[in-house]
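Hello again, I could really use a second opinion on something today. I owe you a coffee for this, so here goes:
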Amino acid sequence: MSQRVREPSVAGYFYPSDKNELVDLIERLFRSSRGPGTHVLEDFADKDVIALLLPHAGYIYSGEIAAYGYAAYNSSGLKKRILILGPNHYGLGALASIYPEGMWRTPLGEVVIDPELSREIPSISEYIVHDEMGHVREHSIEVQLPILQYIHGNNSFLLTPISIMLQTESVARDIGYTLRKLNDMYGGEILFIVSTDFTHYESSSKAYEKDMMAIKKILDIDPDGFLEAVYSSDISMCGYGPTAALLYFLEGVEGVEATLLKYGHSGEVTGDVNNVVGYASIAFYKV
């Protein structure tokens, strides 16, 4: 029986489909003037990065912002397992979809789906089920993989991709509880990533104002306050549900701190500051 393989959906669109071009672009993301530079973030050498919040637009727009989070992760030490929560942009599949066992392919090779977590998670969560359809076209998780592959060098990590369509408080609480159980079971082995962009298609000044409302609550690890800010200020984050899930998990973890590493927007690349998408890179860590 052949093994299930999830083929790339946005290679050649969000990032290059050619391996050499992709590696060259990733390296430029880290050393460009908008990125973190070639040095590792020394501030994180003595910290344990347990979670990241990262953008997922095309690399030319948000890749340099994401590179800040990945530099912090690389500096703090690599983990065996990586679980990525992303929003479901296309309305396909289940309300919360975990990819079954198999592997995901990118131009940099194949990443194995974590067989233990893939089996364990649906038995813990009320909402997450095995489902391929929620991942067929979705880019929010896929765009994180090539940079992770580049950092790890040999695709040695195990991947757990979870695509979330129903972004409600009850789903977020359930997934947050699930993440907490996993952290208790596999403590120290899992890096949790939330893939989300912030405000969509407003002026850069308005996007900054709204996004900082949300980011303040994220840095405070205040999931209820975060959801209230999103709802009351109509903040058009595409991944507010996954973000809330991460915060519900982290509010029960002792000694966690958060840092905004970088904020930016698409207008910094396009020159159009009247119609931007906001991006942030946030690290959650234990000292």
About this structure: The radius of gyration is 17 Å. The chain has a mean pLDDT of 95. Residues 198 and 255 are 26 Å apart (CA to CA). The longest strand covers residues 276-286.
